[in-house]
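task queued by scheduler; priority normal; single chain, no ligands, no partner chains; default sampling; output format set to structure tokens
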Amino acid sequence: MTTKKTLLSAVKPTGEAHIGNYFGAMRQFVDRQDDYRQYIFIANYHALTSVSDKLLLQKLTLELAMDYLAIGVDPKKTTLFLQSDVPEVTELAWIFNTLTTVPYLSRAHAFKDAEAKNHEVNVGLFDYPILMAADILMYGADVVPVGLDQKQHIEIARDTAQKFNRIFGETFKVPEPMILEEVKTVPGTDGRKMSKSYGNVIGLFASDEEIKKAVMSIPTDSKGVEEPKDPSECKVFAIHELFPGTELEALRARYKDGGIGYKESKDLLVEKIIAFIAPMRTRRDEIARDPEAVLKILKEGGEVARAVAQEKMQDVREKVGLKLTLK
């Protein structure tokens, strides 16, 4: 019998989910939950670096849990939980802090980006990669799915594990990044990466009218219906590509040969997105009617995750000298 490897990932509850989140990360957790032992948590400690409103954080956290259940994350197969239900991660992060130098953390991309924009960086944002390392290493993750732009976080976790193991003895598994080549950056309605900060998103559970409004806002050039068009240059076609198949190839051919206008392409895209979103939106509405059931799933997931963390921290405390013995 082959033991499943452990996959870990997390999402910050900082806004409504959009199709960029889904195609870029969320669907992987559904696709892989039969193949891995999965820990998926809602990173509400991490969210505190940017959200300072109690009611807003509670709302976003619960809604994100509902989103994951609506897309098909199965709590019988995946341990879904709140980061804050495992306080041991903050203890482990402190221990890792004592092994990590300021110059090393100063090279982290998130810190450098914020500093370059003259943002006043809070200590939480500066130390973000170390709490993330604690999250990853606590549960013995074999793989962590990340985009290329997040690979550094896994490198920091690997460095931290190796340094701790070298000083105190073999304790932590050294994780590998899972970078999926087929997952490209999901384009937004303006052609840039889909991001809430750019205001170019299509909501994952948006209404039909919201979907239509977002798609119709996509800018295009002035080429007429009969003129050939380069699909690789079209912001509308870039979102069509999220939905592969024979219809996509037929559409690509019509672009190249001429005979399709941008209005028709947008209408087709609206239909495609509505058909894709509608079942998940219906499921999401059903889940939202019973928030107590969602809280129960999170509580039970937290209990499973915390049991793992408590066992790991017993070992860590003993190895670093926090546990007194008379031997």
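post-processing summary
- DSSP finds 13 helices and five strands in the chain.
- The chain has a mean pLDDT of 92.
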